[in-house]
Give the backbone structure.
Amino acid sequence: MRLRGSRFAPVPGAPLLEARDVAVTIGGKPILHGADLTAEAGQLVAVVGPNGAGKSTLVRAIAGLQPLSGGSVRWSGVDVRELRGRTLARLRAFVPQRARVPEGVSVREAVRIGRSPHVGPLQRMTRADHEAVERALARAGVAAFAERRLTTLSGGELQRVQIAVALAQEAPVLLADEPTAHLDLGATATLARLLRGLTGEGLAVVLVVHDLALAAAIADRVVVVHAGRTIAAGAAHDVLDAGRLAHVWQIDAELESTSDGRTALHVNWLGGGAPAPPPPPFLQENEPHPEERTSAR
Amino acid sequence: MSAVEAAGPEAGKHRGRRPLAPRARQVTLAVAAAVAVVAAAIASLTLGAVHVPLSAVLDALTGQAHEGPLKQIVLELRLPRVAEAIAVGAALGVAGALLQGALANPLASPDVIGVTGGASFGAMLVLLAFPSAIALLPVGAFAFGLLATALVFALAATGPRGASITRLILAGIAMTAAFQAATTSLMTAFPDRVQSAIFWLAGGLTTTSWSNLEVVWPYLLIGFALALALMRPLDRLALGDDVAASLGARPRTIRLASALAACLLAASAAAIAGLVTFLGLFIPHVVRMASGTSAHTYVVPTSALCGAALMCAGDTLARTVAAPTELPVGPLMVLIGVPLFLYLLRRAT
């Protein structure tokens, strides 16, 4: 892969994306220590793990948006720290968990923003750039409402616009942080088909996702992040067995797949797995906290 | 199903709701603003205590006029004033557009980064405490405007957790309050001189020479040049800092540069015309509401045109409506601007 107007020199034979032993410390607090992830063209990699495990931080670190305190992230063998912003923006697109929804901006204008890494500081968009924007609008299925304002869109439509913004970058890797959060079933399925379709066209997609049944259905590889580390990576059924579900999520659950592509997570919602939580404060004895007692005196 | 049918219902609904296509609306507004600037400038050059016919104005501007009072009035009294009005209006329009974009806050204006409060204190310091040095008025207003903004940024943008927009705005409001208190204290200390300060506080163009512009033109130039360079980077902030950063932009740098440009422009405007900085708040809103777009590549230059047109027209009215008394242009523009603003606000979706 070569990039026009950039000194990016990929190492032959190196994986498209390789994160090794990534450590991130934010405000003195270690968030990640020993997180690994690799992705190849045409692969969909799902990053799963409980809330606060460090999934988002890992994806942001891979994207070059979060400085590393240890380990390495390499894009086609080149260290992410050696890549300038605009070069990096042509290697990977990043869809954040919650993008801002500005007023007075149409879908097409938003997708044009995604094209900006290809447009020099003092240049205008060329015809090729405009065509790339139209392709991205069409591929994400948002061309029909390209003139509408972002503020008038539904959650599912908005999320597909975010994908279109990313596609306009024409980068070989798409990183998305929980794109299906807050979407209904239909919108989730539409987005899943879109992302899976993109891998069919040669893109690598790295997806942070909470829904394990969804991850099992669409991912080639699942990376399990727990307490800041990658504890398992591989095919969904190998890494998401009942033992790991109990260990990582503290649930009694089992993943099921049928040959026609349906997946389900059978969860024993009210029983087993987790140790009984402490009783809520209002059920505890109404006794002031020791510190409060001292300060009252 | 044909492509026309597929596009049919959406496109039809779209057209039915808006009388003009978005692009046509934008072009119409920009052209109208440009025409208004020219018309207001012509009115300002011809109207006044002495009526100068348009032909005489053109002769004077093209250097074909004979020496005489008409030429003198046009070139030495009215032309500087028109130039000041256009510069001040454009500077405030651009400053507001930059700040509202950079801080992603519709309430942002030169007031919130402290520049207005600082400039009023600087002006009052010269007017009240050192009235013999009245020539330093624009310098004082400009210098304290910059100082206040620098303090706001020093307080909000440093420290362990870096700058956040909220911290910046709150620091700006606090700094404005501090400078306002200092201004009020000055006024209490020199009650007999307050009379001379009122016109500056009301806002308006008083001078009839090039002296003000001679002081501030380099800063205006830097401010406008920065604004031009920042229009597209600001558009990239529209989808939030994460998206902007992932596209290779530097949100913090863009914000700092925008605030610096806005501060230079607003301090220059205050140095020339006193407190008319509210123009910076409402001109960009008028442009966005009337044009239907928030793209900075459109809003910034069109805000410059609209600001220049309003300031120039307001100043002409202020000079002529109750001649020979000159009304302060600030309150007059509020009278014109607020009804327009409220009308657009009610209509905006």
Notes: The first helix of chain A runs from residue 55 to 62. The radius of gyration of chain A is 22 Å. Chain A has a mean pLDDT of 89.
